[in-house]
Write a structure and sequence with these properties.
Length: about 190
């Protein structure tokens, strides 16, 4: 019985500590779970090798380990953005139900988002992700281009969930912390037995 409850507990901990990983364009550095709740996943400096990225018709992909989550994209034209103040929203926040790899459109043309970015410009995008346990961040450094397309090697497909559209300013995400407290209490009680 103790083993069953312990397995349930550790399964719940895995759900709560789940994260996301930016797949494309490549993130600034290797995924660092401990730094993910900080600016650019803890990577303060831009990548030396920026990814050439289409000004329009682009997309980014990420892997979500949360069953329900909210995401958004911020962009900065600063050479070395060092704070959230250097960024503006380029993709409205959206909600998704489902775990796995998702592909989200990313368009930098002025008509799409009012940023007035141009081909040849270096930018940094910051993906903002909230699966209910905390807000997480990962960055990618890009050089925008009018003449580049994303390689056919990069697959744009979605897992089981579909975006539900832009979210209103408030998030209605339920955090599972109560569930963890409950599981900890049960395990502690069983260990005493």
């Amino acid at each position: 019985m103790r083993h069953t409850i312990a397995l349930v507990f550790f399964g719940l901990v895995g759900i709560v500590s789940a994260h996301f990983q930016l797949q494309f364009p490549p993130p600034r550095g290797v995924f660092n779970e401990d730094s993910e709740p900080t600016f650019c996943d803890g990577y303060a400096n831009p990548a030396a090798n920026r990814t050439e990225f289409p000004l329009s018709g682009g997309f980014f992909t990420l892997n979500s380990e949360h069953p329900s989550w909210t995401g958004g994209v911020l962009v900065s034209p600063a050479a070395n953005p060092t704070s959230f103040d250097n960024f503006t929203q380029v993709v409205p926040f959206f909600q998704v139900n489902g775990e796995g790899v998702f592909c989200i459109p990313l368009n930098f043309t002025a008509n799409a988002n009012g940023t007035s970015l141009k081909g040849g410009e270096n930018v940094t995008i910051q993906i903002v992700f909230d699966g209910g346990d905390s807000t997480l961040y990962q960055c990618a450094d890009l050089t925008l281009s009018n003449n580049v397309t994303i390689s056919s090697d990069v697959v744009c497909s979605n897992a089981t969930g579909t975006p539900s559209g832009p979210s209103s300013g408030s998030k209605n995400l339920v955090t599972p912390m109560g569930l963890i407290s409950w599981a900890c209490g049960i395990i502690a009680a069983l260990l005493v037995l």
